[in-house]
């Protein structure tokens, strides 16, 4: 399956929305049920996540694990950007510095 950049962006956006929905529903349920214990909170997270996944599947949506993955990870992109920034700041050892001042006598 070949997916265009626009489709990939839309799918990633859909995945983000589903995750935000899951997180907000979990947060509301934890507050509403006054969950205090870690085990109960974990069970609530699992339950809400399961419900969201079931709904995506029932509606015919693409499951998150089946979404196309980017060619490069965020970490790879960050490293590349950092290298570019460092390269721009590093003056060459072999270039003559630009000096518009007249030579000193």
How would you sum up this structure, described in words?
This protein has one domain. It is 62% helix and 0% strand. It is built from three helices and no strands. Helix 1 packs across helix 2. The model has no long low-confidence stretch (mean pLDDT 82).
Quick structural summary:
This protein is an all-alpha fold and 105 residues long.
Task: Sum up the structure in keywords.
105 residues; single chain; mainly alpha; elongated
Derived from helix and strand composition plus strand pairing, the structural class reads mainly alpha
Range of strand content: under 5%
> What Rg, in angstroms, do the CA atoms define?
25 Å
Major beta sheet summary: none
Shape: elongated
**What is the domain total for the residues?**
1
Tally of DSSP helical segments: 3
Low-pLDDT residue intervals, each spanning 5 or more residues: none
Mean pLDDT: 82
Kindly report how far apart the N and C termini lie.
72 Å
Fraction of residues in helix: 55-70%
What is the succession of H and E elements? Answer: HHH
Find the count of extended strands (DSSP E, 2+ residues).
0
